[in-house]
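Appendix B, example 12.
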Amino acid sequence: MESINIILKSESDFNQLYKIISSNMKYEYIDVNVTKLDFISTSMVIMLTQFFVSIIKNGVNGSITIDERKKSNKYLRDIKIIEFCNSNYVQPHTISEISSQTAMPIKWITTETLNSYITMSESYFGTFCRDKDLTILNICISELINNVYDHSGSEIGAYIFCQYYPTLNRISVVTADLGIGIPTKVNQYLCSIGKEKMSSKDCIEWALTENNTSISTPRNKCKLPVKSGRSKVEIFN
């Protein structure tokens, strides 16, 4: 068993996290260093979240190293990703609010808690988008989460993070799971009905074609210390 340090400098570096998750987890300790990141997007947030959830579930100790002098790193503190991981991450309501950023708290979400989350997001973002119809936002969240539980087979369920960017006047909604992926799911279905497998590209195009579906019943104790300079926050499952 070995310990490794992963330094993330750009979004493309996050592929390293997926490689570890898809490996046999032959590590005793993993430190993720984000001090080189000048910007942390909603996608990066959710990727970090599911990474730590995954390694914790596999009995691997880990930490995240941040530099709070950098605005991008301070953002991780502001959105309470540390508190989220510090809480019982298999509960849908771990952090109640975020006070210093225009973002919804990271959530582990199920089909049972989906409607309450949609209501919460509509109320929250309605304060920034006054007199706007947010129906499309509700549909987007519903479709994304239901797709995870209908199709992905994810061992960690679904996680969601939403951020409003005032300067862009944009709401970013990101969901994540560790399912088998569209190509694998589609090819499993094609094989079950006696058809040949397709390439990953063709599988995705097939899945995006109207009326195509691979499912018949759609619903439409490890420590994770956070190191920041001389401070350390212990995160437990």
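Strands lie at 2-7, 27-33, 61-65, 107-109, 158-165, 170-176, 226-228, 231-233. The longest strand covers residues 158-165.
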